Amino acid sequence: MKRLVYVNDSDITAGVFCSNKISNTKYNLLNFLPKNLWEQFGRFMNKYFLLIACLQLWPLITPVNPASTWGPLIFIFAVSASKEAWDDYGRYCLDKQANERSFWVVKQGVKTQVQAQDILVGDLVWLHENDEVPCDLVLMGTSEALGLCHLETSALDGETDLKTRVAPLPCIGLNSELLLKLKGVIECPDPDKDIRRFDANLRLFPPFTDNDFSPITINNTLLQSCYLRNTEWACGVAVYTGNETKLGMSKGLPEPKVTAADGMVDKLTGALFAFQLVVVLILGVAGNTWQSYEADKMWYVRYPKVSRWYDFLVIPLRFELLCSIMIPISIKVSLDLAKSLHSKYVDWDVQMYDSVTCTPAVATNTAITEDLGQIEYILTDKTGTLTDNVMVFKRCCIKGVYYGAGTGDALTDPELVRAVMEKVPEVIKFLMVMAMCNTVTPCKSAGRALFYKAQSQDEDALVQAAAQLQVLLCSKMGSVVEVSLLGEVLEFEILDTLEFTSERKRMSVVVRERGTGALQLLTKGADETVFPTLCSDQQVRPIADAIDRYSQLGLRTMCLAWRDLEENEYAAWSLKFKEASMSLMDREWKIAEVCQLLEKNLELLGATAIEDKLQEGVPETISTLRNAGINFWMLTGDKHSTAVQIALACNFILPEPEGQLLQVQGRSSNEVRISLERVLRTLRITGTEHKDVAFVIDGLALELALKYHYEAFTELAMLSKTALCCRVTPFQKAQLVELVKSCDYRTLAIGDGGNDVKMIQEAHVGVGISGREGLQAARAADFCLGKFRFLKRLILVHGRYSYNRTAFLSQYCIYKSLVICFIQIFYSFLSGVSGTSLFNSLSLMAYNVVYTSIPVMVTAVLDKDIEEKSVLEHPEILYICQTGRLLNPSTFAGWFGRSLFHGAVVFLVTVNVYAYEKSEIAETSMVALSGCIWLQAFLVALETNSFTWFQHMAVWGNVVLFYLVNLLLNLVEHSGMYTIMFRLCSQPAYWLSLLLIVIIGMGPLLALKYFRVMYRPSTVNMLQRLEHQYTNSLSVETPTKSLDVSLSMTRTTFNHGSELGSVYEPLLLPETPTFQKKSGDSEASSDSVPSSPTRVTLPTYSRSKNK
């Protein structure tokens, strides 16, 4: 589909296209309540709680006041709705501010000031320097004679360098008076979100030009949210407005990422719901049976003489309401709040602040911090992520002659300097390609000093190197380029630019020297794309050898080529290129086909070698994370040998004999199949050896493997802990992330450029580096870092702590609800299985919202099982989190058993001391509730590892708060608790009952934990003991050695099949069963963290996770 936009004549299409009013809000005043409620009730658990709340409105079946459910439900919904409303109001204010900005628009040949929301498609919009572009415009003219303007696009694509935009060819030279009268038509496609592509055609109406169409590309546009810089004024015609701009089409909420912990909680609550239904069914049958056979024997029980058809449902429904608290209504709110605070720790961490670029760590996704602690695969870009992306021209080979081999710097090589001074033709051609075949923009500072603006660091390095060798790119004025060759200024006209794409992997320009009129084609690109375009008699071997040599040094290589063109040949080709450029369908593919017609019979001039140094701390970070059991894949667009050298330099792969690098190669499906089979055989043979095995594959072989041999390649990926994927496209990067995810592993993708966005969004966790390629990756990521080395702290410290805390919080929330529910169930056997509640509604509400929430929330935010230093020194302990050891069906069974035990203890002690005729029901209820509060205070204290004064206040202050609240309620006559607490507190039996409850309830747990810590300690227990022993001298050498020795002892001495005694592991289970490994290997057992992080050779560990 296409649209026709009439230039400077918006009346023709008035009402056809949307206005320029921006709206990013989800709601309005009329639809907020119904829409928000619809969204909230779209979740299964919310529907369940609503059903329970509605059933409680039936007086016949509700055992408690409906307020006990409606109150928390309305509160939670109100909190969620208020958050949504606040966020949406913020978006409304921003929209209002943007819509009411003033701009100059041409109306009836006169510039008129209007609000941004009143701009229509076809309006001619006049911008001044530093103005923000209000909608998508096609540039018609600027204050510059050649129709140039400069644009800041950082708000759109994150790239900080200024872009040059140029008016279409028919509009160049039009002054401001002519632009006011401009008429024409633009034929463009329907709106899309591709900010790097715009395929359209322009035809101006007479008298401005003839009736020929002229192609328009993205370089002729000014897109919404960009800023006009260093240009006095510019005007353009609006083609896309409002939410139909490219930015508006790109907006939208990304797919929410569900963490492994969240998935496991969903599964556990589902199992709990099934258990609840079974309990309700059993108790319902028992209640109806008791009513039928025993009720008549009780003189004080009065049931209706005439039964109704629904009587058999009353008792089961009553138990359904009574047991509904098994699934805590507050669990989601509690987890969301805790996760938000966990993510704030990332923002506040000064140790992850990059002082060089002034970049702090930022958690843009506050809901997935705990997933960092379960990462098993890291897929990383190379350039700008592992390296600094500071390109320095180091060496070159021109016509087989090596420069810079002796000095290490070609720019100071006397031989190259002499060749330039003597104007050796091949050397001059080589430098001219470096200077002109690029998209670099020369600029001058206030002091008239020349500097360059480049979108590519490689291009900047080449232009800077050529300038140092006295081939200076002086200026670019439209299509005219000035180059200073040894002080002599030469003028060239750029006739056509054959742009670089990730598929072509090369760039060419057609230039005409104004002095001689000679036509030349200048080309640069990757060797595998340039070599096929050379003359058949060209000697390629010397340059190919040079490229291999440079790659082995870890340098980035590029080939440069040249060809003289004939006028007739160029004229014929130019018509085809123009025709392809004006195509609205498949323009990029058609242009690439036409480019191949000209890029042939080239003369190979030589190759360049550019150094990109590793970032500080990269080898240490990769080594540490490898020891933590994390596998690494490098996904790069560089050639094979360069990637291998960088991988060796940063501990990605190990040299022989410690490591082995296998290569998957081939140019056909059969060749790739044979190569895959050979590599798989080798891996199976070496699988039992202690050797670091990796494989390397290039883009073409990868494409064939994924298309024709997916299963074999997947097996290869899982058998090898390290992979190097070279010459891969952004789409292939995302494919590889998806492949690893499909094997049920938690993935993290990290990159710094726009070509990494797809894989960052595809991974479970995306990390963006704020680098020299802009902020696109950082904006698309879940976490933003200044340097790669901060990834170690992000995963080992923040990820691990967050997972530990989330595991504890989620299971404790269920535990505290089960305790009170089991007491209610036990009480039903004393109340004729009638579904009567022991507790009043106010007590139940306060129990869930206040009494049991404050201590656990503080612990879930502040607790640390071991110190950060120990975690970083012994990264192997991350394996406990990776395998889901702290949150799985086994640990949940422990918490379930603990809740059953505690419920039984509280009920039996309370009943034996206070039940029957010894006291009234309200006193019995309060004793049971007090027992629960005291038990859970001691339980939180037992599970807390690092007490602070704030945690003491939360745990013990909460007990004090319980008594203060209830003592105040005792003063209210109609509260249902009038004088109850006064009477209980004055009775020694009350305090003795609480003491008995605490001793019986906590004694076995304390004894079991003591046994595990002292006689069957885990790695964490050993570290905790040594930390306590060396509190004041942990940084001294001797304690550190003791830690290492203890870890070694733990690996070899204890072999019980599970990691015992971890901080939140269930204490009621004698041992944790071993879970089946995903790869299907035979099971092995080990108590502690395995000595090798290799996925294939690791002992089998519990790995119960939802993915």
TrEMBL record:
Residues 778-1018 form the P-type ATPase C-terminal domain. Residues 5-70 form the P-type ATPase N-terminal domain. Pfam families: Cation_ATPase, E1-E2_ATPase, PhoLip_ATPase_C, PhoLip_ATPase_N. Its main location: membrane. Residues 1094-1107 have a biased composition (Polar residues). SUPFAM superfamilies: Calcium ATPase, transduction domain A, Calcium ATPase, transmembrane domain M, HAD-like, Metal cation-transporting ATPase, ATP-binding domain N. It is found in: Endomembrane system; Membrane. It is an enzyme of class 7 (translocase). Keywords: ATP-binding, Magnesium, Membrane, Metal-binding, Nucleotide-binding, Translocase, Transmembrane, Transmembrane helix. The chain crosses the membrane at residues 812-830, 842-862, 895-915, 921-942, 949-969, 989-1008. Residues 1072-1107 are annotated as: Disordered. This is Phospholipid-transporting ATPase.
